[in-house]
Write a structure and sequence with these properties.
By secondary structure, the chain is mostly beta strands. The chain contains one helix and 22 strands. It has a four-stranded antiparallel β-sheet, with no helix packed on it. It has a four-stranded antiparallel β-sheet with strand order 3-4-5-6, with no helix packed on it. The chain has a four-stranded antiparallel β-sheet with strand order 7-8-9-10, with no helix packed on it. The longest helix is centred in the last third of the chain and has 7 residues. It is globular and about 45 Å long. The N and C termini lie far apart (38 Å).
Length: 271
């Protein structure tokens, strides 16, 4: 189940500028280990001593050391057509869900008990900025990413350029919105942003749908366009990601082809 560890080598630092944020793309994350997880269709989440595989209507908890699955949940696909991602927040697993590929787009936030994977509550976001792909907790706020697509799952008048980052307060009221820079949009087209997780360095790390790379993003103090700080090559292609809070720059992702959870050490990004 748990594949062999790769030798951990100190990764090079990604150094890039806003004028050429892809100049650091030659720096690559170093893969550390893989866990076979049949549920890993949409993404991965992490918590103390646990990693979670996320599927459209499935969640599974795995021991990261042994690779053994010790808790599973499966919901009715009619009720849960598309869970996109989850994040561990305290004793709860907070998940982003949508009705993709149906339109009009509708989204909701789901809360599960992190230990038992029992559904707890939900918040209907209705028809808004797009199709919700991830939700994260950072700086005493909720951060949500709404995807938009050129083709399947998209709506007339919107394409991938309408992908939007939204900040909500503790009452889930909107307090800010940002769009993604052209340097990122050009690389995710015609799809959108599938994963996002805040790093301990204060940068937001996001992934597209297919490309084997992660984009380091900074939220500007003014203006409505996010700053693309750097790009890191990875061994997996897009989907939901999660930083391991107990590790030193260890980022989990999924390999959809092999249905595996993948841990990688990511080089520091210098602004």
């Amino acid at each position: 189940m748990l594949l062999a560890l790769m030798t951990a080598i100190a990764p090079a630092t990604v150094s890039a500028t806003q004028d050429d944020p892809t100049s650091g793309a030659a720096a690559a994350a170093i893969e550390l280990r893989r866990i076979v997880a049949p549920e890993a269709h949409q993404g991965v989440a992490t918590g103390p001593g646990v990693v979670y595989a996320v599927g459209n209507n499935q969640l599974a908890a795995y021991d990261p050391q042994t690779g053994r699955s010790f808790r599973q949940w499966e919901g009715d696909p009619k009720r849960y057509p598309h869970i996109n991602s989850c994040e561990r927040v305290g004793e709860e697993l907070v998940c982003a869900a949508s009705n993709y590929p149906a339109t009009p787009m509708r989204s909701e936030i789901l809360w599960f008990d992190a230990a038992t994977l029992t559904p707890l509550r939900q918040h209907d976001l209705g028809h808004g900025h797009g199709s919700l792909t991830w939700v994260a907790r950072h700086d005493d706020a909720w951060w949500l990413c709404y995807a938009n697509y050129d083709g399947k799952g998209g709506e007339p008048g919107r394409d991938h350029k309408a992908t939007t980052l939204v900040r909500l307060d503790n009452d889930l009221a909107e307090t800010g919105t940002w769009t993604f820079p052209d340097t990122v949009l050009a690389r995710i087209a015609p799809r959108s942003i599938s994963g996002g997780s805040w790093g301990s360095d204060g940068l937001l790390y996001v992934t597209g749908h297919d490309r084997k790379e992660v984009y380091a993003i900074k939220v500007p103090t003014d203006g409505s366009v996010l700053h693309h700080v750097g790009t890191i090559a990875t061994s997996t292609g897009g989907q939901a990601i999660s930083w391991e809070r107990q590790g030193e720059r260890v980022l989990w992702s999924i390999d959809r082809v092999s249905s595996e959870l993948v841990a990688s050490r990511v080089p520091p990004v210098v602004e």
